[in-house]
Design brief:
- 2 copies of one chain form a homodimer.
- Chain A is an alpha/beta fold.
- Chain A has 8 helices and 6 strands; from the N terminus they run αβαβββαββααααα.
- Chain A has a 6-stranded mixed beta sheet, sandwiched between helices.
- The longest helix of chain A has 25 residues.
- Chain A is globular, with a radius of gyration of 17 Å.
């Protein structure tokens, strides 16, 4: 039997027909734009059903921000996340608040610039904001770097569709900056995935496989 | 008995606790940004519960665009519109497609630059795009003009909150243009409301009232 791929191991043998994503952090981190770009990448360029939502309540003034993207093979009746398949937490508060909503096998990605207490050692910890500062001298591209990483870490969106959607949304004249930011996110995610693979203990490799190799 | 106000007549004596808005038109008319600004005006600046959603399906490549805003006094369990209280149609196709989703007493606002066949004579017909072209030489502000009109025509959002939300979202350096666009929308709506009042036949004014005046 072939070894399961990263995504098969990570997401179970096949992707369920509904996939729920929450992007969270503080206001000003560009999470709403990120949600829109991600939804357009999946819906317009990858051709699936997508609903993208942001909600505001009395806590909205507190400066927290979240954006949800629901993906399905069928029309979406209920566009709100129930149990998350993917949580991106760009600050500690949102990580603490939303981690309980993540499925046990769900994917947690944190901005390790701000999230220092990670509830699960298997989380992908990537310093999006630090990369944005150090590599681009522009903190505002942290969301686009995160988007690049996300397109590498989840099979729900392709990197190509992500790039098309980013370029269609960002202001004219910033295309190169944003394309480079996406690429930086992709590379950072590739490195994080390698580290993740080391953490992962091969679950129950049968003896003969070991001998075969 | 005092004469009912415009809003009481228009929306029933009191606003229901759930209010559903759909903004629709073609891609490129800025409806998603408009939905976000409207949701932020109501949720952050006016302090109600708001959920703002865009959905994409196989038709997304067709160039249609819609954005929904649900407002409630309570937390929103179901963030998708069921029966619309307000429909903004920025082109003919979206007007034809979504008018059946409007409640009988719902508010229809159309961009009369593009919507020439209006399904209900009581619709507010305002040439948002023509105003944007002629007054500002910038078609892209049609959505902000429409937002100004909307804040005048529905009690669900205040003009003050709308202005704060617009100024927080638009690119630096465009504040004056956008503030002027909002104002142009407000004035256009005031004129449209006057015309609307003329159309409105006083429903069942009792004889004595007529004699009193």
């Amino acid at each position: 039997m072939p070894k399961p791929t990263f995504h098969e191991r990570h997401l179970g043998v096949e992707m369920s027909s509904r996939y729920e994503i929450r992007l969270s952090g503080s206001g000003g981190q560009g999470l709403i734009l990120m949600g829109i770009i991600l939804a357009e990448a999946i819906g317009i360029y990858d051709g699936k059903f997508v609903a993208q939502t942001q909600s505001y309540g009395p806590e909205a003034r507190g400066g927290s921000s979240k954006s949800e993207v629901i993906v399905s093979d069928e029309e979406i009746d209920y566009p709100k996340a129930i149990k998350l398949d993917l949580l991106l937490a760009m600050n500690q508060k949102s990580c603490d608040e939303f981690y309980p909503d993540l499925k046990p096998e769900g994917l947690l990605i944190v901005d390790s610039t701000f999230v220092t207490q990670v509830p699960n050692p298997k989380a992908f910890q990537i310093p999006f904001t630090r990369i944005a500062r150090e590599k681009f001298n522009r903190e505002v591209v942290a969301n686009i770097i995160a988007l690049g990483a996300l397109s590498q870490l989840t099979p729900v969106v392709s990197s190509k569709a992500t790039e098309s959607a980013v370029l269609a949304r960002v202001p004219k004249g910033t295309e190169k900056l944003n394309r480079d930011a996406l690429k930086a996110g992709l590379s950072a995610a590739r490195r994080a995935k390698k580290d993740w693979m080391k953490l992962e203990v091969p679950p129950d490799t049968p003896k003969e496989d070991v001998l075969d190799s």
